[in-house]
Amino acid sequence: MSGHAGNPATETFLAHRNLLFTVAYEMLGSAADAEDVLQETWLRWVKADVEQVHDQRAYLIRMTTRQSLNRLRSMKHRKEAYFGPWLPEPLLTAPDAAEDVELAESLSMALMLVLETLSPTERAVFVLREAFDVGYDEIATAVGKSPAAVRQIAYRARRHVDARRPREAISSRETRAALEAFRRALEAGDLQGLLDVLAPEVVLVSDGGGVKQAAPRPVISAGKVARFIVGGIGKAEVTLNAQPTMVNGGPALILRVDGEIDGVVAIRVEDARITGLYYVRNPQKLTRIGFETPLTLR
User: Fold this and answer.
1) Closest CA to 245 of 298, 286, 212
2) For residue range 104-127, what is the model confidence (pLDDT) as tens digits?
3) Cα distance between residue 91 and residue 31, in whole Å
4) 220, 203 contact by CB (below 8 A)
């Protein structure tokens, strides 16, 4: 794109790039696939007669949505063959992303896992309507449905998500306190320290992609999660360092083993205790962590 500097089409695309990336990422759960979608959108955008486009932002969102839907449908078989639990690729986000509560929730690991249970069209409609407040007529054009059908799809998707949506998270101050307590206990391999900060019903989901060791199914309850963590550290006999960061609009830790990035764990906090741990170890999902500039969304 650098060769098109000063071109109005390029300037418009770059002005909306973060928005388009966020739309694609929320639909796909993969930053790499979202980047591919943006490239496809860009190639179509520069061929369009942009001077005849009345609402260029809406047009770009529509193009991105269509490309994302195509890719989402093709990803279905890839995810069905995935080894063990699947988690979204962790996305480093700037601290101010958490200030936009609705956006932070729509990006959260917990909600994106719920979105995985929707059909591609339901997911597209939900993301565009709930996260970006796109009008029903515009969504209808993007997904190839009538406005009336889109309203029904939106209602059905919202009910489905609301039935599975995690409860509201607590204040950022309490969240930071829980994250710090978890970090200290994790680095020390402190079983009691973990039990003190984990909620009784905590769920740990770990994604190794068949490359790194991970639990083959979610681990549930404070005792089981704490023993799983401490046991894993003890068996490995390594030095573990946890660096606080922001992932998907919420608190997380980048875990390094003997100085090398081992994974990213995002947390969810309710009532001052951790109720969700989402641990991504799959190396293919960690290529951006450690050197990528945190994304400022929208």
Assistant:
1) 286
2) 788 899 999 999 999 999 999 999
3) 7
4) yes
Confirm if 35 and 71 have CB atoms less than 8 A apart: no
In 3D space, the residue among 254, 274, 239 whose CA is nearest the CA of residue 91 turns out to be 254
Residue 269 structure tokens: 């906090």
Name the token pair of 112: 């994106």
For strands 198-207 and 219-220, give the pairing.
antiparallel
Place of tokens 């709930």: 130
Q: Cβ(109)–Cβ(275) under 8 Å?
A: no
Give pTM, 2 decimals: 0.87
Q: Using the Cα atoms of residue 9, residue 293, residue 298 and residue 60 in order, give the sign of their dihedral.
A: positive
Q: How far is CA 146 from CA 105, 125, 136, 273, in A?
A: 28, 12, 9, 44
Contact criterion met (CB below 8 Å) for 120 and 148: no
pLDDT at 79: 80
5/214: higher pLDDT = 214
pLDDT digit string, tens, across residues 142-175: 999 999 999 999 999 999 999 887 766 567 788 8
The tokens 């695309």 sit on which residue? 13
